[in-house]
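Dear colleague,

Following up on Tuesday's group meeting, I ran the structure prediction for the two-component complex that the binding team flagged. I've pasted the input sequences exactly as they went in, so you can double-check that nothing got truncated or mislabelled along the way. The structure tokens for the whole assembly follow below. Feel free to forward this to whoever is handling the docking comparison.

Inputs:
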Amino acid sequence: MLKRIFADNFRALVNFEFRPDRLSLLLGGNGSGKTSVFDVLGNLRDLIVLGRPVNELFAFTRTRWETRDVQRFEVDVQSNDGTYRYALEIQHPEDAPGKPFIRSEHVTLDGALLYRFSAGEVQLFRDDQGMGPVFPFRPDQSFLPNLDPTVARQMSRLAGFKEFMAKLWRVQPNPFIFEAASKQDDVFLARDGRNFGSFFSYLNSERPEARTELENRLRDALPGFRNFFFRRLGDAKLLLSTFNVEDKVSGEYNLLELSEGQRVLMVLYATVCGLARPGAVLCFDEPDNFVSLSEIQPWLQFLRDALETQGGQGIIISHHPEVIDYLAQDSLWWFERPSGPVIVRPFDADTASPLKLSELVARGAA
Amino acid sequence: MPKKLTCWLLCEDLEQERLFRPILERHFRRIHVEPRKPHGGASFVLQQVERLAHYIRRRHQEAVGLLVVIDGDAAGLQRRLEEIRTAAGLTGAVWEERIAACVPCRSVETWEMWLCGEHEVDEQTKYKETFGREIQRGAMSARKAVEAWFAPLTPEVRQAEETRLPALAHGRKEVARLQRFAK
């Protein structure tokens, strides 16, 4: 479980610390820094799991009014083995703008080093805390994506941290850029959901129980929806959905023929069905966009039940009254920037007021 | 068949939702959980009862039911029921048909512990912390309580339930009434 996020000198996050719970809702005005928290998590994941270079992820992300040339990030993760801490320092050289590099990178478990990168050198540590290999490595990307599975057997704890980061998902569906056809199975669901067809193809072949659950859920959420199937289209596959009207099959539709709201609902339910596993952290950025009012709470109920059953974690950014009122007794956090840097605090509601929480938020009562 | 098998659940907190939403889901296609507030408690629920009851009274053609859940706390079953009736401003057939009230005494954790097999509970003692510890131990959970809700009752357990937790016996009847309505 993700216990703590720290970021310093990243956009408007200066000495910023946030401790999420099992299900957290981030509230606050536009520009208050909520999405920057997801950016930190997403960037660290892409650095550690996908091996994306530092300059793609962190160039020109320093805090505008800060003069310091180093960014710092920390992530604390509670696991069955103890508490991991990942720490990263990124140097932004004044003489090479847009070309940041890793100054140092560490992973510890209950304070014991598992991995260290500094001064261009990687030092690995075995599970028994003995010294592992030492070798030079480039500072423009993390070594962790390259952790060799054969070596990782002696370093299962370090591999465990990487596994945790691989289960960190950020979802912000954009129905305008969905791809109708897929050429492969994708284990990853893209942040914007564009590869939904390829992700469904993966569920179809590798996770049939998740596929069945997804179709069952969509039958409730989308009036008339029956099921998905693929049709060959050259070297690609076209994902089609069948819909009924008054118990008769009315037609087969590809993703681009569906409404934006229908596409978003498919991604939201697919995220929970396919990705809500033990240890997973699901970060939703305004999942309610495009979704009809009556469909928001059923999805939230499904998400809550899945997290409680599977042991995952959810962090949601939303301005929507349906979301705010349903999650009103979960962990609510208020983001604001009264004088520059982002400040986050537990949301404090006027409990004596007869107004709903969403009504208080709308009236600026935070 | 009713056009929409929807039931509204108006409850104080998440623990009540954990018990009552799955129970209602066995009978209704959709459960809409009404807004609640941090520390809103019984008073916020009672504030919402009036507007929801007013709507339900006017919408006879829809299969919409309302289950109101408020912990008995120190007030107890009869006083809470009176508070709900007053807040709803409804009497007679409509009240009987579409609106049900459950008053876990002393709190929902009392019912959950009883349903999970702890039959030494009473309606005066607070069990929130005890139930929390049992959850941590893995011995009890809201899900187990839901399963037990639907398990057949032996005459002995039914008798003991009516004697020790009369509010639970009343609550079962209320939910059964909504259940019949859903059909």
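The interface with chain B takes residues 220, 297-298, 301, 325-326, 328-330, 332, 347, 349, 351, 354, 356-358 of chain A (CB under 8 Å).

Cheers,
M.
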